[in-house]
């Protein structure tokens, strides 16, 4: 019971902290030079500005953002995970109301500085949400769904969707802000790719004296397949056993510690895998 409450408290705090960062970023950096952030947050701001400028109708941000996220939330609920979608909806609600509540306090009006630092803050907010088992909603649901289907990172695919929003924004409000928004979104996407390691794959080549024990424990704890290869050390001419496996980047620390614990003389070569084809176990979201 204690671990259950501790886990949910951690998720809730991540969602709250990520919402605060994202909302503060919108009111501090994004609005300062009229940028369009990524995903449905950007689409919400675009619609809000369009209604205000062309029709003189001031629609609250939370009404637009929550309305846009209804359909993506259904995708998340049915295809990704109920717990994940629940926390994502919580973040959408927090972020939507905080954007309307937090006062606008620009730090700088330098478009390049705003694009870079605003993109960093936006990426960090999304990474924190993902660590807490949530997302900022909208296109994040689509990106995570594609990641599980394609077995590789898909945030760059969402970047293409964001470009379409920026083209529309360019025609409506001028292309200078739209081009700076590209920098903002590119920086944000690279931050997510760098720090959200779950979608990245790592190949391990393990030389061990306890192949049966290690292979059994690795399969039990990671659910990934292990291939055993017999070899010979060229220097010592001793028979060597090599274990070959592919795991998620977020599992490397745990697996390395496990191997060292079971065999103190183990040798592990850690290789970044650009892509894999075939079956690969991916733990489903709750």
TrEMBL record:
Q: Describe its membrane topology.
A: Multi-pass membrane protein
> Which InterPro entries does the entry mention?
DUF2179, N-reg_PII/ATP_PRibTrfase_C, UPF0750_membrane, YitT
DUF2179 domain location: 224-278
* Residue intervals passing through the bilayer: 59-80, 87-106, 112-134, 155-175
Give any Pfam family that matches. YitT_membrane
- UniProt GO cellular component terms: plasma membrane
Q: Which UniProt keywords apply?
A: Cell membrane, Membrane, Transmembrane, Transmembrane helix
Any idea where this protein resides? Cell membrane
- Its recorded name reads DUF2179 domain-containing protein
**Which species is the source of this protein?**
Massilimicrobiota timonensis
